Amino acid sequence: MDVITPKRIKITLKTIRALTFIGLLFFVFLSTVILSVVLYAKWQGPPSLAVPQSTIIYANDGSTIGELHNGQKRYWVNLDSISEHVLNATLAIEDQNFHEHNGFDYKRIAGAALADLKAMAKVQGASTITQQYARNLYLEHEKTWKRKFNEALYTIRLEQNYSKNQILEGYLNTIYYGHGVYGIEAAANYYFGKSAKELTLAEAALLAGIPKGPNLYSPYINKEKAEKRQSIILEIMKKEDYITEKELDTAVNQKLVYKIKTNNIQKGIAPYFQDAMMSSLENEHQIDEQMVQTQGLKIYTTLDPNMQEIAEKLVEQSIDEKSDIQAGFVAMDPKTGYVKALIGGRDYAESPFNRATQAKRQPGSSIKPLLYYAAVTKGFTPSTEMKSEPTSFTYDNGKANYKPSNYNDYYADDFITMLEAIALSDNIFAVKTHMFIGMEELAKTGELFGLSSKIKQIPSTALGTSPVRLIELVNAYGMLGNGGNKITPKFVTKIENADGEVIYKPDKTKEQLLNEQAAFVTTHMMTGMFDTSLNSYTSVTGHSIADSLTREYAGKSGTTSTDSWMVGMSPQLVTGVWTGYDKGKTINLVQERSYAKNIWATFMEKALDDQSVKAFTPPDGVVGAYVNPESGKLATKGCPVKRYTYFITGTEPTDYCEDHIDEVEENDANENKQEEDRWFDKLFKWWD
């Protein structure tokens, strides 16, 4: 047991006095800093409300494709002219302690910091309404301590010089509600055709949810998400005693009637592209949409106006104007991921929902290149053979059966090669491959290629039953075509602030994500869909457009009862087209099934018309050889079809095709007989 001596007590008291003195010094210093900031904020007086500046959006050739004019749909109204439901809903979801704090909610900040620490990521915000108002009105987007200091200073200035009601009024009149609409009065008119004073509880709760993410929670973009967030806000309002249980039930069950004015949606140039670009800035780069809308930025995008115009005209001209069928279109540079053209629907004013970036649809056979890439990495080659015949597959430990069929029930009833299988889109071969390498492989490959939707580990996913987004599948094909380098869809090449300073540029670091040799072998096999010499028990899937193509392309089509896909690429450009009905209506007309392929083929030819013809370049580690596509063996003189095919070095066939030896011998005999006949004729003529 330790003995406490007078000397040890003396040392302990000294330590306590030292720590107390240091603590007091720190407290005095901190108090001095805080007091100085508060006095400085008070001395500066009330901040003037800056006039928002227009943000200009440029295409890749420097032309202007959009200009965000702020204030065009903004009306300032006082709090007395705003429904009490709006005030309560906004406070409930954005800042429950608004009337108690001095601009900073320290308890909420601590809670958010703890949540972020647990998740090791930014998962929760703690900004008060005053902070949001300060940030949106005055500050530029720069993740620095200087910006944080300025935000705090502006917040203090607002709290020091304006009442809580004035701050709340300013916030509600300047907050962004999507579609170029600012302020609660303009939002009430835009979404419901009424004034802010007339908004019901249900309507107010829905509008209060939009500023969190206008591209996510606008009912015109995603009605389901918007109304789900509305329900959450109503529940919080009940919890905070803003409404009763009865009012909650009434609001939840109220059917909202939205008003859309076509003249409120400015179509402009490439409106779906611009929406996708804005969404990418907010979701991927944390550049707030309201900041984009108000800070006088210059946004330089990847859009190619010529390609966009070609695509829009083709979609308009190719699809019967009387048809309700919809379309999605994406063209990208496979080396950089730069999106060159994008269409999310046939009429933006009628439906801003972006079918290229938001819709998840079953890709059908257009998923097969990812499956065959996985197979090549597992030892399959273009010469690998399996039998094409009606087959029933058992899975889930024998508890379930799956019996796929080929298109029109055409089968080879014989062995076919993988080279043929991808060109002819043989479903039996695909499912056998899927089951052989393990159903988990396609799921892992989908993640590797950047598909955000999980691919289920069941036999049917080999035929594209797990939904994907068009832009993600196009991006995946681009990775195959560029040799396996990682890319992601990019919409912006540079952003400058009002002072001309560059505040954003995309990362151009290269990352080899795929096996380069397997990616090339798969890509080269994909050129077979346009090679009519591979016609067999059925035609290659690209036979209808093959004659219109003038350069080498790799691609794959896909068809379901409700969807039609065509995704393909050259070394310079990868493009995907989807056509189908929004509400699950089946595609029954033959003409409608051809839209995707025809649009794709015509676009690729026109878009690349002024560019040199290039072929996919084989990397080191692959070897090419002429093979008989039916047997997969090295072609001989008698083989009716010979196709130059690439293999990962060491996996190429070594045996020669012997299927046509008799034909060769017969041909040789006929040639010899003809030679003898010619010799005899010459002799006879000489003698005569």
Automatic annotation (TrEMBL):
Keyword set, alphabetical order: Carboxypeptidase, Cell membrane, Cell shape, Cell wall biogenesis/degradation, Glycosyltransferase, Hydrolase, Membrane, Multifunctional enzyme, Peptidoglycan synthesis, Protease, Transferase, Transmembrane, Transmembrane helix
Catalytic activity: Preferential cleavage: (Ac)2-L-Lys-D-Ala-|-D-Ala. Also transpeptidation of peptidyl-alanyl moieties that are N-acyl substituents of D-alanine; [GlcNAc-(1->4)-Mur2Ac(oyl-L-Ala-gamma-D-Glu-L-Lys-D-Ala-D-Ala)](n)-di-trans,octa-cis-undecaprenyl diphosphate + beta-D-GlcNAc-(1->4)-Mur2Ac(oyl-L-Ala-gamma-D-Glu-L-Lys-D-Ala-D-Ala)-di-trans,octa-cis-undecaprenyl diphosphate = [GlcNAc-(1->4)-Mur2Ac(oyl-L-Ala-gamma-D-Glu-L-Lys-D-Ala-D-Ala)](n+1)-di-trans,octa-cis-undecaprenyl diphosphate + di-trans,octa-cis-undecaprenyl diphosphate + H(+)
Residue span(s) of domain Penicillin-binding protein transpeptidase: 328-572
Source species of the chain: Metabacillus litoralis
PANTHER family xrefs: BINDING PROTEIN TRANSPEPTIDASE, PUTATIVE-RELATED, PENICILLIN-BINDING PROTEIN 1B
Gene Ontology terms, MF aspect: penicillin binding; peptidoglycan glycosyltransferase activity; serine-type D-Ala-D-Ala carboxypeptidase activity
Protein name (database record): PBP1A family penicillin-binding protein
Superkingdom field: Bacteria
One annotated Gene Ontology cellular component of this protein: outer membrane-bounded periplasmic space
Pfam families: Transgly, Transpeptidase
